[in-house]
Amino acid sequence: MKNKYSIFSLIKNAFSQHENWKQAWGNPEPKKEYEAVIVGGGGHGLATAYYLAKKHNMKNIAVLEKGWIGGGNTGRNTTIIRSNYLWDASAGLYDHALKIWENLSQELNYNIMFSQRGVMNLAHNLQDVRDLKRRTHANRLNGIDAVWLDTKQVKEFCPIINISQDIRYPVLGGTLQRRAGTARHDAVAWGYARGADAMGVDIIQNCEVKGIKRNGDHVEGLDTTKGFIKTKKIGVVAAGHSSVIANMAGLKLPLESKPLQALVSEPVKPIIDTVVMSNAVHAYVSQSDKGELVIGAGTDAYISYTQRGSHDVVEGTLKAILELYPIFSRMKMLRQWGGIVDICPDASPIISKTNIKGLYFNCGWGTGGFKATPGSGDLFAHTIANDEPHKLNAAFNLNRFVSGDLVDEHGAAAVAH
Amino acid sequence: MFVINCPYCGERDQSEFSCGGEAHIVRPKQPTELSDDEWAEYLFMRKNIKGVQFERWNHTHGCRKWFNMVRDTSNDKIHAVYKMGEKPPVI
Known about the structure:
The complex is a heterodimer of chains A (417) and B (91).
Chain A (H helix, E strand, L loop, with lengths): L6 H8 L18 E2 L1 E4 L3 H13 L5 E4 L15 E2 L6 H21 L10 E5 L2 H16 L5 E3 L1 H7 L15 E5 L3 E2 L2 H14 L3 E3 L4 E7 L2 E7 L2 E5 L2 E3 L5 H7 L7 E10 L9 E4 L4 E5 L5 E7 L11 H14 L8 E11 L6 E4 L5 E5 L9 H14 L13 H4 L14
Helix pairs in contact in A: 2-6, 2-9, 3-9
Chain B lengths: L2 E4 L3 E4 L4 E5 L13 H8 L8 E7 L7 E7 L4 E7 L8
Antiparallel strand pairs in B: 1-2, 3-4, 4-5, 5-6
């Protein structure tokens, strides 16, 4: 890689007051034709381009992004990474991603600040306890680390948590995945963009797709705000806007796009060194390296592309946070925002071919796509390059909604929906 | 966050309501005759429009009645509210 980052490049650039660092990726105008075009310059799209170039030797490719890279859900999520899913297909998919995360900073020569600080999922009623214990067993059978913690062990692992049994939703225990954690979300997009750019991928920002040109049963190119781009392969990774792109090709997807909200507090000294999620009360919290509490809420229960969401959802989440962590009662929240998430009926993603030749979709990640970024990119690249899914994403095809072979992860996988 | 004009109760906060998704999806008259593709289309496939969308809502924490609404999903602006069985307005 040109311009390799290292202690030596840091020292060298210090002598010129860090004013001579090269731009990490280029800003090219689109060519007339590409071997493949990825629609969507978020983490998943950039990772797809990166692995297409790296593992499948497809260098003449472009990533089209209507805004700036990483400005959508990649920059809006709560950065949680875990793989403790119930079903075998999901466990395979998410643990594939987690294994790539473990080496990603080295591979990309870019510090993505991956921190395996553990993710704890709380149980608040007897059904939660049964479900989470069952999931722990399923995880271990799939080679994924998971332990069950009783209430006292929960308190030992996260001392600020309120384990009083007199609260509305008392803590009855929880599961812990120690390999899970967080990463710096922007850095993931930037690292993949830099890596892909170094292999010759064109990353084209401020370029919105306006139409998909079809000739019978196959694609011929895309109409964009920067003109027509000819290509035989289109990989769409547009998250909340997947249906909008699908409609351009005359395709309907089993998706509903909803706002998912998150918020951060003012920065404080280190107080919580792990990630705690609670499905039943729809609240999860971790602390960023800057010291802000990063809090995730549930989705608004209606279709919307507004990136806002309703106040009552945030209010409900903060009530739960305050009951679980009374110590936060005087914290001030600094920012609140919404991202548009595309939710599948079975709460599992789609990484699939379509019945239109050359058109591929990677969507439906719903409320939890960030954790899968590297694995999703790797498997989607495989699917595009070979026109066949990898065995790890074979179950996540679009046809499962016809065959009925769903991967039902609703609630069962500690997913906060 | 927005205010919905329930056709039975009048203006109430959106948090009192729940959304039932895309409206006017006709239930198959002969379910036994349907192919797998047609079932998938009926059960799962949605337009998920960014823009003006016809949808069903229920006043869950009020009269608990279902009704239809025309809303722009790109800005949450409500164009029309009408009762079940009424003809959808032309927007």
